[in-house]
Design brief:
Elements: H1 2-16, E1 20-23, E2 28-31, E3 36-43, E4 50-54, E5 57-58, E6 65-70, E7 73-80, E8 89-97, E9 100-103, E10 107-112, E11 116-119, E12 124-126, E13 132-139, E14 146-151, E15 154-161, E16 164-168, E17 175-183, E18 186-189, E19 193-197, E20 205-213, E21 216-222, E22 233-239, E23 249-253, E24 258-261, E25 269-277, E26 289-292, E27 303-309, E28 313-319, H2 323-326, E29 332-339, E30 342-343, E31 347-349, E32 353-357, E33 366-372, E34 384-385, H3 389-434, H4 469-475, E35 485-493, E36 497-505, E37 511-519, H5 526-540, E38 552-556, E39 565-571, H6 578-587, H7 596-615, E40 618-619, E41 628-630, E42 636-638, E43 645-646, E44 652-654, H8 668-673, E45 675-677, H9 678-693, H10 708-713, H11 726-734, H12 746-759, E46 765-770, H13 779-786, E47 798-803, E48 810-811
Parallel strand pairs: 2-10, 12-19
Antiparallel strand pairs: 1-3, 3-7, 4-5, 4-8, 6-7, 8-9, 8-10, 11-13, 13-16, 14-15, 14-17, 17-18, 17-19, 20-21, 21-24, 22-23, 22-25, 25-26, 27-28, 28-32, 29-30, 29-31, 29-33, 33-34, 35-36, 36-37, 37-39, 38-39, 40-43, 41-42, 44-45, 46-47, 47-48
Amino acid sequence: MKVLLLFLLLWVHSQQQAVLYTKQPSNQTVSQGNEVHLGCAIEGVADPDIRWMKDGRSLFSTDQVFLTLGEKHWETSHSVRSVQQQDAGQYWCEVEFQGRTFSSERAWITVEGVPHFLSEPEDVATFPDTPFNLSCSAVGPPEPVEVLWWVGGAQEGGASASPSILHVPGVNISVKFYCEAKNTRGISVSRTGTVHIKVLPEAPFDLHVFRFEDNNFTLSWKPGFNGHSALCTCNVQVSPPPLSTGPTHFEVKVPPHSLQLIGLRSHCNYSVRVLCSNEVGASPFSPWLHFSTPERVPLVAPGNLTFDLSEQLLSLRWRPLQEEELQGKLRVYRLQWTQAGETQEPLLFKESQALLSGASRFLNASFRVCACTAVGCGPWSSSVLVLPPAVSVSVRRSHVGVALLLALLTVCVFTLMMMMVARHREKETQFGSAFKDAESSVSFTAAQTFSRNNREQLEFTLDSLSINDDLKMKLQDVLISEKQITLGHMLGKGEFGSVREAFLKCNDSSVLKVAVKVLKSDVTSCDDIEQCLKEAAYIKEFNHPNVIKLIGVSLHSRPGVRLPVPMLLLPFMKHGDLHTFLLLSRIGEQPFELPVHSLLSFMLDICRGMDYLSGRSLIHRDLAARNCMLGEDLRVCVADFGLSKRIYSGDYYRQGSVSKLPVKWIALESLADNVYTTQSDVWSFGVTMWEILTRGQTPYPGVENSEIYEFLIKGERLKKPPACRDDLYQLMHQCWSPVPKCRPTFQQLLVELERLVTSLKPSTELLYVNLQGAGPLPQQERDWLMGSDAALAIREEYRYTIGGEGDDVINV
């Protein structure tokens, strides 16, 4: 045992000595704007992944270089060409080997320059002649740092050591101020702050009332200028009061700047206005907002329906409805009558009575009445049967006799049942006494029956799959049962699966038309499923109008197959993918012209979506017109994140395995080294811009996929599309710079595209009309669809049209 233990200790020691840093980073002090260079060399690891760390976080730099010094001996460096104050800190190297992390010695970079501010003066809001303090803090190196204050354009006091606090006894008007920080390297000037005098707020504006539910409405408004003091409450005045005994003023804590008005009467005129208060006082009232509540169907039925029958005339009367019962303007009273089991044509009356001639024809007829407004008719009253006067009296008496007879019969039946129960219990008692020593009887009920011939498929859940627990938690609240989905025709098919139209039955029984992305059917392992579900987890977190949203995830079971096929439920984009739309405009059966303004709007939408994704540390890796979807309002959404990756450390992702990738859209460095960054997505965006301007042409016509790298490395790029503006092509060409850092960011592209869109006045507007449907399916038809195969045959088609502002739409 001792020999074995000694052997293990020697083995552990040898493993610890296997990784050796032969070069360590060293402390450096440099002046601001100069270059700094750090080096690290490691021995004992084959093809190591050496990371540079700064203050506990991973660094990524395109200037990082790897050199081979010998077998299992590597050197790396990290450079900063123009050092700034934010580059100061502690640096070291790390490498992972056999489950352990080996770190180099830590080195400090100290940056000398003009002072930089740790805290700058903030704006101040105060009452007149009230004292307040201003603070300013700056540091070197070099030290010491002195601070000078300037208030209202004049120097206030002398120099003081940093940090500095200036006491101001009070001011009567708004003034500007700033501080200067000085050391031996020079002077830095802080931001300019403002002293604001607190005043009364301005009146609220933009009052709106919108329907919430039933007779409850929501009032919203925008606050006016707050007078340099936060608004605390707003006062809402309502006339007349919502309820007959309710208040006319409501005090609301803000934000939010809204109030729910409860109990408003239907078909009634109301007026509201709002004022808001800060710590100084109350603002003026906003102008009155006048609005009317809509009509509704009457709340109750007319009461006290009676008749008076003479030889020639039948007179019917009922109690008229009050204004609050009508909930609108009375149009008519609807009198419905039935005779010999047949419903007759209804009669309409303006007043609460009906005089009908020919009384004999109404004998033995049944009448009921309801009130109607413009919205509809209310409930029916109780029916009244028209009988001759003598018969009516006898009928009433007979009714009393029948009621007494029924009561007597009920008592007899109840007594008989009680006697039978008593006799049954007596028998049970005798039986039990005869077998009092016997074992207690046991009863059971089968909870569920099973049959080997049952062909019903099991419904899969996330728990039934061997996937990551963290992924389960992310998707648990968006998992949708397969039973709620009716698949329709196929919308498209690609390398990794297909997209199909479908109908989703929601929990409130409504039906939603969706697009379902189905993974390829040859699922052989849980890894295939997990990869698709990871895409769903990415999309679930997105909330941007130009990025596709996730509706839900479902698991499609298949007869005789152990694993389900994952399905992603996405919004149904009425106009499909952007590439197909562009092709139809150029080479479809009915081509149509797309204005340049519309093409720029497509680019702007994609850029907004990609700016949002890059801000969330996500690289798409497959940005192209085919992966951008076009909604009903012709808004473009970035979609298809099958190749996307989240970058948690640094700013890049290295493709570890060979996969089918869109070569003609991929950046030069990605083709060479399988390294993907946000800058490589910018390259793909430039290619997508070219696709849009050429209305769906294939990039690099005449160049094979295998020749793309050699084509690009020679400096060749996509040619300028016909009729393309020079500034737009220049922006596109910047996206294809061979140096990733020289490409514009999505935020910079967004600014330039918005400038171009603003400079172009839209001459025409792209419209669309539905050739088949005139609106959404009625609820009854949607319910029928969910229970039949009819959904498989439904496919709406659209024709695109061009029309100017104010012009009639013309089919093209």
